[in-house]
Amino acid sequence: MAHPASSTVRVPSHPMSTATVAKTVLRIGGFRVDPPVVLAPMAGITNVAFRRLCRECGAGLYVCEMITSRALVERQPRTMCMIRFDPEERPRSLQLYGVDPATVGAAVRMVVSEDLADHVDLNFGCPVPKVTRRGGGAALPFKHRLFERIVRSAVLSAGSGDRQLPVTVKMRMGIDDAHHTYLRAGRIAADCGVAAVALHARTAAQRYSGRADWSAVARLRDALPPEVPVLGNGDIFRAQDAVAMMSRTGCDGVVIGRGCLGRPWLFAELEAVFAGRPARPGPNLGKVANTLARHARLLCDHLGVERGIRDLRKHMAWYLMGFPVGSMLRRRLAMVSSLGELDELLGELDADAPFPVDAQGPRGRQGSPGRVSLPEGWLDDADDETVPGGAELADSGG
């Protein structure tokens, strides 16, 4: 399957052969990420249970859900629960959201002094209205001076020498097609000393609709110093898509988001192709049921049985996408209320049903493009570095 945007991908100055891609090793600060694959932080998804499930499938860098800097500094109980990591999870990767350089700096210093994580990623890519209407997420890089202050504050607060935590930035192309910000923001972030820059090749206005513009990843790779890794994100639904993005754009690694929803074994496929081996065929329904049951128990260990089972329900449609499961059984699984009931219902599935070809494509939220919610007058002055009033969120999560 050709990538949908392949006809528009700009050839980078230094395109890579498939063989070179397979040998690529990504470094984030002092950490070796092999294969060069990062799990995107996704609200309500990438908790410790899901990260462990993905890690059991294949290697990579696995990032927790987005944490707000204010909630971390104020030690909100829910936030402190969200930053739990498995004892063997290394490096421990934490994503922070913030709009106030002082609060972001304080949050990073807390991470360092209390040994809460080994890597901090800064969120400048969230397109959710409750975030952008406050000037945060994908809206913030437009205010390039404020953006610089936040990134610099995080880097300077991340320690020094051997004890310095790598700080990375994840962003979108911009607010909309009239307000692209990624090239300027990428250069600013590199000048501030970040360890890597990741680009979701859509604007905030696109949300998750349409096609990711991989040519933007190529332009960003060309614009930044070679020692600053550039990671590409957007429309990677198969292992071959990751190889295609890297070979066509010259980027140094990929970020996997919606492609792994209900498909944690995607990381096994990615590990295989980056090692030069063919990816295994998708699992049959029996193996998917086993993975789903494992996910359920990990969630219950993390959240407690009642919350864990409730949290599992949103994953059902992703796991079962394309499989021949009757509508009645799908509804019962979507309303499951206990581990015993889950095991009983999974036993009713046709374990030998092969993995469906049409389950390889887009999954998760897509929506439609639309106007981005912004603070009043936000686009009037890109040089304004004033911190928006009330922009720091007091809690974490989607």
Tell me what the structure shows:
This protein is of the alpha/beta class and 398 residues long. 36% of the residues lie in helices and 12% in strands. The strands form two sheets. An eight-stranded parallel β-barrel has the order 3-4-5-6-7-8-9-10, surrounded by six helices. The protein has two domains: 259 residues, Alpha-Beta Barrel (TIM Barrel); 72 residues, Non-ribosomal Peptide Synthetase Peptidyl Carrier Protein, Chain A. The longest helix is centred in the last third of the chain and has 19 residues. It has 16 helices and ten strands. Helix 5 packs parallel to helix 7.
Lay out the secondary structure.
Layout: H1 18-22, E1 26-28, E2 31-33, E3 37-39, H2 48-57, E4 61-68, H3 69-73, H4 77-82, E5 93-97, H5 101-113, E6 119-124, H6 129-132, H7 144-156, E7 167-172, H8 182-192, E8 196-200, H9 214-223, E9 230-233, H10 239-249, E10 253-256, H11 266-274, H12 285-303, H13 305-312, H14 316-320, H15 327-334, H16 339-346
Parallel strand pairs: 3-4, 3-10, 4-5, 5-6, 6-7, 7-8, 8-9, 9-10
Antiparallel strand pairs: 1-2
Helix pairs in contact: 2-12, 5-7, 7-8, 8-9, 10-11, 12-13, 12-16
